[in-house]
Amino acid sequence: MPDAYDDLPLKGPAGEEYGREMEARASAWMTRAKHGDADAFDELTQALRNRAFRLARAWVGSREDALELAQEAFLKTYRARDTYRDGEPFLPWFHRILRNTCFSFLRQSKRLRKSSLSAGREEDEPDWEIADADEPAPEDGVGDAERRDAFWKGFQRLSARDREILGLRHFQELSYSEIARVLAIPEGTVMSRLFHARARLRAALAGYFEPESGASARQEKTR
Hints:
Largest sheet: 2 strands, antiparallel
Number of strands: 2
Structural class: mainly alpha
Order of helices and strands: HHHHEEHHHHH
CATH architecture: Orthogonal Bundle
CATH superfamily: RNA polymerase sigma factor, region 2, helix turn helix motif
Radius of gyration: 18 Å
């Protein structure tokens, strides 16, 4: 099949160096915002709002809901600014707020239930299944409209954890080490989660694409 990842960006504009720079800038902005600099929080929001929206949409599906939830997460972040510890990495702190905001919405919408696959996975932390939002595919996804729609339908069949790790890697364009810092897990766990999430995504896409060639499969293993 055409590799579902071929049209997705795998790295930020300057790779790991860019990611570390953004992480440092975000932490500095939040520290300034905590001490009363409203402009610094505006800069922080402008820099990260697209990332926040993309990950929120990976979880909730709906574009409108994702926009509102990303905005709500930034509002909660600002309200909680006094609890932010100076020098603490901001991105993992914000990620928890965004995830909790999205999961609260999904619970209230009765679209979240514990995954039956949790017990068989590599970690004890429970996973969650998300009911589809019946939304059209994002226009900034993969390839043409037909492939994009097929990819989105397959993606929405994945669990919350799979959507999260794929969203961080392919929608937020983070490196393995950046994802490890955001999720506070070892880099090896990031690689393991990505490997299994990609396998489940390939299985979910099997009904939409032709079986992938051996060359494509080998290429995927090297990513």
